[in-house]
Every structure is written in C-alpha cells, then in structure tokens.
Task: structure prediction
Amino acid sequence: MRYVKTDTQSDPQSSAHPTTGKQKDLSKILAEELLAIGLTGVHTDEYGYVYATIEPNTEKKVPVICFCSHVDTAPDCSGTNVKPLLHKQYNGEDIVLPDDNLQIISTKDYPYLKEHIGHSIITASGLTLLGADDKSGVAIIMDMANYLVTHPEVKHGTIKILFTPDEEVGKGTAKLNMKMLGADFAYTLDGGEAGTFEDETFSADGAKITVHGVIAHPGYAKDKLINALKIAGEILAALPKDEFSPETTNGRQGFIHPVAVNGIAEKATIEFIIRDFITSNLALHEVRLKTIAEEVLQRFPKATMQLEVWEQYRNMKEILDQHPQVAANAAAAYKRAGLTVRNEPIRGGTDGSRLSFMGLPCPNIFTGMQAIHSKHEWVGVKDMEKAVDVLVQLVQVWEESV
Ligand SMILES: [Zn+2]
Result:
C-alpha cells in the first residue's frame, strides 16, 4: 500500500529513459529497502532499474534465478494521489469507492471476488487506478527477499532481483544491463488469478499497405483520377467481418488488425498488426491480407500497391521449450504451495517475451491483480501471500534439482 502511493505512471509519448522521472522515486525507495533487508549488489541507475542479489546459502552450483517486476503504472488511468483502501474480511457486497460513488466493484462484474469473501482485498478510492499492476509483484518480491534473508534454513542458490521502468509503454527492457543482472533464468511477477502461469505469448508482426493512385486536377479529372484513399477504404471494407479480427477472436485464434490509415488522394497507407500463437501462421495471414488487397486493386488497373511486413516480437514458448526445467520447476513450486498450474496463453506480449529472446528465458507468475489499468483495480491479499509462498518453494526446487 505504501508503494502504490508513489506516482510512477509511464508516458508513451516520451522518448526519455525512463519515460517519466517520477518512476525513479519508487526505484530509490526499493533500493534503500533492499539494502536495509541486507541484500548485496543493490544498485539503481539513471534509467530507473533496480538490481540486487540474495547471496546463496548452499554449496551446490544452482542456476542463477531472477525475479522481476515493473515499477511503472499504465498511462490509461491516473496514478496520481492513489489512496489504497484495505477492506478486511470482505463480506461479498458491492464496494462503492468513496471518492466517486459511480465506481462500484461488484461480484457480478468480477466473479473472482467471491473467492476472497472473508479475506482482505485492496482497492483504490475511485479517482485513480490502484497500481497492483505491478506493485503487487514488487511487494511479493520484497516480501520474499525479507523472508529468505530471515530464514537461512531455506536453501537456495544466487537469487537476483530486478525492478524495471516503462513496461506499460513497451520499453521495460530498453536500457536493461543483462551483464549486471547476471541471471540464467527469470520469472516476472505480473499475472492475474492465483494458480495461473503464463509461458506463451502471441508472435507479432507489423505490416503496411501503401496504395499509389493517379492524381489529377479535380476539375479535369474525369477518367483520369484514381483516388488512393478510396482504394484504401475498399481494402478495409473487404476484410472479413466475422473472423480474423481482434473483435471476433479469442483463445488461440490469430488476427490481423488495421491500426492506422494515413494519406492523400495520390497515396494512402494502412498499417496493421498481425498476431498468432504459431509463428508460421503469421506468413499465412500476410498472404491472405495481400490476396484481399490485390483483389481490390484488380478493379483499379492503374493503381499500384505494396505490402511491407516486419517482425515485432515472438512467442516466448519457442525459447522456454528449449529450457523445460523453467516451467517444470514452477509447476512443482505451485504444487508445494497447494496450487494447480493453469497455463494461460497471453494475447499480447510481455517483458518476459522480450527477455526470453534476449537470452533470459522468462515466464510469468501470478500476483492476484484484477481489473488492471482501471479505477476498479483490486487485489486479494491472500493471493499475494500465496505468490510469496510459491517463490519461496521455487528457489528450493531449483536448489534441490541440482
Ligand atoms: Zn504489468
């Protein structure tokens, strides 16, 4: 609750690192606390990253495991003057947030709340997000660090702690010093319901169609002018209406999604994002997009079109499958903590997918956070405690596996 009171909202418009200087306010607090707990190598840099080490207490050569969370909160909703509220022994009734009576958190909208009846939950006060994404992850890691330092009977190898800025604006790994981190495998603490485990993300390409029309003075354009904007409009209209789009797919289905249209009568561009869990399907989607566009262009023989495609990110499962012990050890730790693993593919990318392709295989563990990026954001305290338990089990599973 202390961490969420520090405003750490990141800014997608900024090209600075971090995108907002205030993120470093929390990084500084965390570095001081890690030092006070007794960790070594505690370091926070000009970019807002925090690095720290829990020294090993075993003779065995255990792989170096890193736990990672992001300090920033989403730009979608204010993170200024967050007033966290602890609702002890939640009774199952609607929670009317005190600073805006229209903001109501109910079991109807959030059925998962029912699992927290009789337990403590934390919400914001109605004017801001809570920032459980991802300060619940930060708190879990801090609590684990404190637990390991004060419980030397729990055997573990070298544990690295990493807090990153700017995850919410897709720049969480931009200035990360992998050498300084020095970890073999990592886990982000940035997931939802207790028991969920995410080791699979979309694979993602970007694409751009450029349409070249034929320009003429509009007063004398009869039988000459071919308007690129109208062709772009027809391409958009020719996209499938009941499939192949974000608004008509879920689960493991992929899609193409127009995200921007720009142009003048002479030349127009349409930008797309293309997503699928199976990387080789991206090429199939791109062929399909090209075919749709070419069919439209056939009606305008004097117009031309190009399609460019570029890689954005890849499904981290491709990397994690090469290191099956990362997920297997997590599954064992969940079991010891009394949980069954629920694997959920993420219909998006994470810092973990970027880290995985930077050479640090990195799936995602739950924190309990719910209704993220909104004024309804909440988190159950028992889920956070459970996540600490999972981490304490996990470091031991790694130690025993050597
Ligand atoms: Zn997050």
Summary: The CA atoms of residues 194 and 368 lie 6 Å apart. The pocket of zinc ion is lined by residues 70, 133-134, 167, 190 (CB under 6 Å). The chain has nine helices and 17 strands.
